[in-house]
Amino acid sequence: MILPVSFYSRSTLKVLVDLIGKVLVRKSEDGLTSGIIVEAEAYSGEDDPASYAFSGRTKRSEIMYGPPGRAFVHFTYGMHHMLNLVTEKKEFPAAILIRALEPRDGISLMKKRRQTEEPFNLCSGPAKICQAFAIDRSHNGVSLSSSNSPIFIKEGEKRKEELIWTSRIGVSEGKDRLWRAYLKGSPFISVK
Fold first, then answer.
1. What is the H or E stretch that residue 181 is in?
2. Nearest to 3 by CA among 23, 17, 20
3. Would you say the C-alpha torsion 133, 135, 140, 142 has a positive or negative sign?
4. What pTM did the predictor assign?
5. What is the spatial distance between Cα 40 and Cα 112, in angstroms, rounded to a whole number?
6. Is residue 67 part of a domain?
7. pLDDT, average across residues 136-148
8. In a domain, 53, yes or no
9. Which residue, 28, 61, 117, 148, could crosslink 53 as a Cys pair with Cβ 3.0–4.6 Å?
10. Residue 61 and residue 51: Cα distance in Å, rounded?
């Protein structure tokens, strides 16, 4: 079952807890790819110094203000795309960055796109995910709750492992907010 918009229109940290273990699906002309979400980070509010919304509403942060259940794909360091999921209510800027996946479907296609045979290196970072799944700025704003969408998230298997909470990766401000969660023991996370 594809996650409905109501899944995303809650507190960002609650969405993050429930997001781990769900399955990201990407449909393309080349084929279908999917992976279990094993790591993600939350960004919430204009008072979050690590958020794109910290400077207020800008062209880049506009999509974070809603509606929820949309993809927020941004380009960073002049070379990498990153997939975020818009959360909370409309007009409140919040999103979750997908940091790592455990590959499931379309592994040979992911290997081709990433030019690696190493399964633990396919989706162990937000830029790697976008490369393996062929996600770019053209997907910015697409609904994540429609089977007609090229990207959506569906229910996964019930997880038994606990979540580990740490500071977010690659941020200089807001390190005191332990808003990165990952599945304990997963060999697929981005940073051990």
1. strand 180-183
2. 23
3. negative
4. 0.94
5. 24
6. yes
7. 95
8. yes
9. 61
10. 9
